[in-house]
Amino acid sequence: MKFCSKCVLPDTFPGIHFDEHGVCNYCHHSQLPDQERKQEYIRAFEDLLDSVRGKHSFDVLVAYSGGKDSTYTMYQLANKYKLNVLAFTFDNGFISEKARENIIKMSDLCGATSLIVRPPFPKLKKIFQVAATKDLYSAKTLDRASSICTTCIGHVKAIALKTAMEKNIPLVAWGWSPGQAPIASAIRHTSPQLQSISHRTVRDKILENSNELKSYFLSDEDLKIPQERWPINIHPLAFMDYDEEEIFKLIKSLGWEHPKDLDPNSTNCKLNALANYLHRERYNFHPYAWEVAGIVRAGGIPREEGVAKTTEDESMPMVKYAADVLGIDLNK
Amino acid sequence: MESKQEQLINFINENFIVGRGDTTLALQADQSLLDSGIIDSTGVMELVMFIEQQYSVKIEVDELIPENLDTVNNIIRLLKTKNIN
């Protein structure tokens, strides 16, 4: 397999081609923000925080998985920016025990109120089974993440949005790494129309297969909410300095512990290894390749480490553990 | 020199279509990008970044609506309102 000489994307990645130096077309199109642009975002971000701080029951809902990036994001918001945080965790039934301890410990440290939502596992099991075996989402969506991860994050986005609206929380924060979402969306007030389309895209696929999960999503009627009631999505890691090693160093100094029972791309979820394994089997590229490529371009990790993260075989005991829980036969 | 329509179609083809699913269908300038699932929510922002950089314009929050971004023709119309011809 050939890899881009600059990032980590392999020659099996959809639409890829390389120039004479082995650099891929996605590297040529990537638009990395310079320090000046990052500073512009930081100023706008701080103005936004000043405009909402202390005016609501919570200043911000943080989508908090207990993993490295969302822990770092929550810590920055609570500690540096002095926000009152509601730490929302979606329990998909596969949270590592160590991650669960981290969620409690770090929420306490940040003075955050922890809200853990766990749908009945049999309902989730059913949709994860479907996601594991069918192409549920658009091809482009599956460039960025596995079908199982997209299903899970679809629930997280929907419940986060519903909760923020119900509790009148003005901001919803995400720990997206620089490779997961473009800086253009980092603090931009997304239009309700686009948010509605985005919500429906994933919601409809999930509900077509498991309508019993509908209470976790916004209905078409709900989506007609006036613009001023939509929370603003923020993902500050797009413009903050992002160095994975430094992030680990900081959060470990705060008491966060690295779960040992996970694959190299997750710091909280025991389903991830199976999700990655199935995606690679089906599409012949790693579902984290796009994200890791973005992190490498942004200087968050060395390229060699990125290549290792996206080529290393999954631990088969971890893959089998999740497959057994979901009742999936890996030989089919 | 490529027209704006060609530039936009080439960008969308390369980043969202080629190598994914049925690539025998050519993207039409009036084809919905969102309803067809060609572009997802993250993709919309990538497209916005491309437009802003390529044509040196700023797309404002209230312009982030399907009427402006859902087809190549809509994008060209939006650019015309910004005097990009």
Written account of the structure:
The complex is a heterodimer of chains A (332) and B (85). Chain A is of the alpha/beta class. Chain A has a domain at 31-257: Rossmann fold. Chain A is 47% helix and 6% strand. Chain A has helices at 25-29, 35-52, 68-80, 97-109, 121-133, 139-144, 147-166, 192-209, 244-253, 272-283, 289-297, 303-311, 316-326, and strands at residues 60-63, 85-90, 113-117, 171-173, 232-234. In chain A, helix 3 (68-80) crosses helix 9 (244-253), helix 5 (121-133) crosses helix 7 and helix 10 packs across helix 13. The model of chain A has no long low-confidence stretch (mean pLDDT 94). Chain B has helices at 4-17, 41-55, 66-69, 72-81. In chain B, helix 1 runs antiparallel to helix 2. Chain B has one domain (1-8, 33-85). Chain B is built from four helices and no strands. The longest helix of chain B is centred in the middle third of the chain and has 15 residues, at 41-55. At the A-B interface, helix 1, helix 6 and helix 8 of A face helix 1 and helix 2 of B.
Which helices and strands occur, and which strands form pairs?
The complex is a heterodimer of chains A (332) and B (85).
Chain A lengths: L24 H5 L5 H18 L7 E4 L4 H13 L4 E6 L6 H13 L3 E5 L3 H13 L5 H6 L2 H20 L4 E3 L18 H18 L22 E3 L9 H10 L18 H12 L5 H9 L5 H9 L4 H11 L6
Parallel strand pairs in A: 1-2, 1-4, 2-3, 4-5
Helix pairs in contact in A: 3-9, 5-7, 7-8, 10-13, 11-12
Chain B lengths: L3 H14 L23 H15 L10 H4 L2 H10 L4
Helix pairs in contact in B: 1-2
